[in-house]
Amino acid sequence: MEWRRRHVLGLYDFRPEEIEFVVDTARSMEEVLTRDIKKVPALRGKTVVNLFFEASTRTRTSFEMAGKRLSADVVNFSSSTSSITKGETLLDTARNIEAMKPSVIVIRHAASGAPHFLSRHVSCSIVNAGDGANEHPTQGLLDLYTILKAKGSVAGRKIAIVGDILHSRVVRSDLHSLGKMGAKLWLCGPATLLPREMGRTGATLTCDIREAVKDADVVIMLRIQLERQKTAYFPSLREYSRMYGLNRSVFSLAKEDAVIMHPGPINRGIELSDDLADCGNSLVLRQVESGVAVRMAILYLLAGGSHAAH
Amino acid sequence: MLLIEGGRVIDPKSRRDETGSLLLSDGKVKEFLPGDPPKGFAGEVIHAGGKWVVPGLIDMHVHLREPGYEWKEDIRSGTAAAAGGGFTSVACMANTKPVNDHPEITRHILEKARRDGAANVFPVAAVTLGLEGKEMVNFSELAEAGAVAFSDDGKPVASPLLMRRALEYARPFGFLILVHPEDHDLAEGGSAHEGWTAQKLGIPGIPAVAEEVAIARDILLARQTGGRLHLQHISTRMGVDLLRMAKRAGLNVTGETAPQYFTLTDAALEGYDTNAKMNPPLRDEDDRMAILEGIQDGTIDAVACDHAPHEEYVKRCEFVAAANGIIGLQSSLALTLALLAGGKVAPARVVDLLSAAPARILSLKGKGSLAPGADADVTVIDPDREWTFGPEEILSKSRNSPFLGWKFRGRAVATICGGSVRHSTLPGVSSHA
Q1: CA of B134 to nearest chain A CA: how many angstroms apart?
Q2: ipTM
Q3: pLDDT confidence of residue A307
Q4: Does some domain include residue B418?
Q5: pLDDT tens digits, residue range B160-215?
Q6: Which residue among B101, B218, B306, B377 is the active-site one?
Q7: Does A136 contact B at CB distance below 8 Å?
Q8: Hey, which residues 65-104 in chain A have their CB within 8 Å of chain B?
Q9: Which residues in chain A touch residue B198, judged by CB atoms under 8 angstroms apart?
Q10: What CATH architecture does domain A137-283 belong to?
Q11: Order of all β-strands in the sheet with B176-179
């Protein structure tokens, strides 16, 4: 397959063979990570800018690590002040950075569509590292990659995603990465955080975590944003945890060899019980490992290699 | 003296739809002359063969941005866009800076309009001081200064009590209150219609019920008080249903919609197109169909475009950060004429929606009619003219329209205000102020 994309804005328009291609590329990247010297010169002389408008440690570090493993120069630009109220600032900031000739800008922003907007105004590649409640494509890919490694396949497998579906960009990317590879997806959460329109994705919706987890191969727990409670999407964290938290008793309904995933950071004891977070079925740290390989693959495909678009 | 000869004169108020000529004199309609044009007429003549000759179009919902936001639009450019789109009158909303909540502002707008205006301007004053939803404006002073109605458009009165008092207080004077129906709590934080597109794009939603709750509330308050209520830019199916129910119950309630709500759906947001961002938001296909049904069965009285000019940079940004609203004065007629296709509405109904009805709702004397003695405000429409709404056509200072590049059929070819031509694309007809 020939890679033709200049940007990775979301997985919504990825064809299944493109997703497989990224996974294959990530496999060879992971091989690099097993070496003694974990670095290849693929992106030597290229610059990757991490442009983060929302606090994030693990995603930013993961991209930084990925870029460095490929010998790119990685520059981090963080701005805690959201540019949502002053739109021109985002474009100005991006254009300023673009003037320094990076190959790739990795952007995280609170506004859905911010990376799409930038991609229309700058000439370098844009990678979406999470935009509002829209997508988090590299998370979607690393979730797929992690499941493939653990299970060998996703087609036909029951995968339950539990939590704040309404505001989750992870869900909106997982629906594409896992859905397009044939997974049977279940979305579960309190009715206030489970929009009915999501049924149009082909996923099954339920407000009953037991129904979602029953016979599941994979259970993906989402982080509950603690501030959501203030806007009264649910009565209290105690109630949330009781109804939508994953604990031993609920997890026992899943398949014997079911695995637990979480995009992090975990609110221990709220959406995921402490013991399950660290149990043998938990793939949480494997997700972090996969993240570096997948992000290396994306950076490589965009900025280096014979398949690079430019 | 101006003779518009040989056109199809459509004047729903006089129940006229026939070929003939219209004689204008001293700023008034003098008479309708049926059949062949009179021979040997000495004054100025507009040949309107094959065209429609209709009472000057009236847009009862525009934002002229003056005073305070003249870089977006001013009275001169806004009324030029109006005349270019066939409108001889516009009613401008109060969310200027300062807010039109004081007779001085109303008089200022009217003065500027008399001096710079290519169309008549009818100011709508605020319902509450500063659009703050706390204290009522001085209704009678504002009405005397020239305000034709009252509206907190854009920042609807949140308190049901204050809304009740406003409707009740205004009733004996016959003052009309226009409402932008939106429950702020239900809509808060939203940027797009709460539906599939918003879910797919991860944009926080504005549910249809935010509009419907407000419509229901204000209809019930109108019922309680007997006040005159007009619902602005209805965009939802249940909104139309509620208005229909109110009318059946004999309440003094009217309603308008905008061309965007019967033309587009939230699918236009794909790719985060900020020119499709507005409030109320573009809804779904079922809502769009309901708006069309409401127009067809007469539930919706008028079409008004909610002309909302914005400079480029407040639209050239992230979707949720972008300003709401689109310009509409030069596309409104063509989009409404598109309803003729398939016989959804008759030509006389289009004229009613865009002229007679707004004149009736706002009680504009001498407007919305071509009866002898009416003001000589006339729009000549070529219903078959094909044209493209390109940026070079835009007379507004702003270009925020999702219809740019659209191919239209039908446009105003002459706009005559008070007997003088304010805009024309007809050969040999020049416009003068």
Answers
A1: 25
A2: 0.88
A3: 46
A4: no
A5: 999 999 999 999 999 999 999 999 999 999 999 999 999 999 999 999 999 999 99
A6: B306
A7: no
A8: 83-88, 90-91
A9: 197
A10: 3-Layer(aba) Sandwich (3.40)
A11: B57-62, B87-92, B120-125, B149-151, B176-179, B228-231, B253-257, B302-303
